[in-house]
Amino acid sequence: MTYQMPDSDGVAILPAGECWDLLSSMTLGRLVTSVDGQPEIFPVNYVVQHRTILFRTAEGTKLISAAINNHVVFEVDDHNVAEGWSVVVKGVARSLRTNEQIEDAERAQVLSWTASEKSHYVRILPEMITGRRFQFGSPSMGKSIHA
């Protein structure tokens, strides 16, 4: 893992490979899309497969908005007492339709938190991935917060 030193504000830009590693380490993210011209955000269980984001959904808003408004943003983050990180993927969402696509997605074993039927797969094809790591702490002693 390549680690870039944080700048004076405690923020480090992450290389794409580390962003993918962090995405792969989590299972819950946020899908951001537009529904009726308004921004919407949905928590989704996901997996990383073939450097894409894969999730399952039931009929409804997420599936319809992913199919109609196919440009989406996907965000994942985590933190502990010392630091945090955030990864953002901008890309195109595609509903999987062919038997080959669905069989490939089923091998990824996307697990759901709820018992509801989620028979539709959506794959986000990334166009851009960015990430940042944040070192927590108080403002530098040499800097005045009143300046």
What does this structure look like?
The chain has 147 residues and is an alpha+beta fold. It has one domain: Pnp Oxidase, Chain A (Roll). It contains 3 helices and 7 strands. It has helices at 16-24, 61-68, 99-107, and strands at residues 11-13, 28-35, 38-49, 52-57, 71-79, 83-95, 120-135. A 6-stranded antiparallel beta barrel has the order 2-3-4-7-6-5.
Features:
147 residues, alpha+beta, Pnp Oxidase, Chain A, six-stranded antiparallel barrel, 3 helices, 18% helix, elongated
Write the layout of secondary structure elements.
Layout: E1 11-13, H1 16-24, E2 28-35, E3 38-49, E4 52-57, H2 61-68, E5 71-79, E6 83-95, H3 99-107, E7 120-135
Antiparallel strand pairs: 1-7, 2-3, 2-5, 3-4, 4-7, 5-6, 6-7
Average pLDDT confidence is: 86
Rg: 18 Å
Shape: elongated
Main sheet characteristics: 6 strands, antiparallel, barrel
Short description:
The chain is 18% helix and 46% strand. It is built from 3 helices and 7 strands. With 147 residues, the chain is an alpha+beta fold.
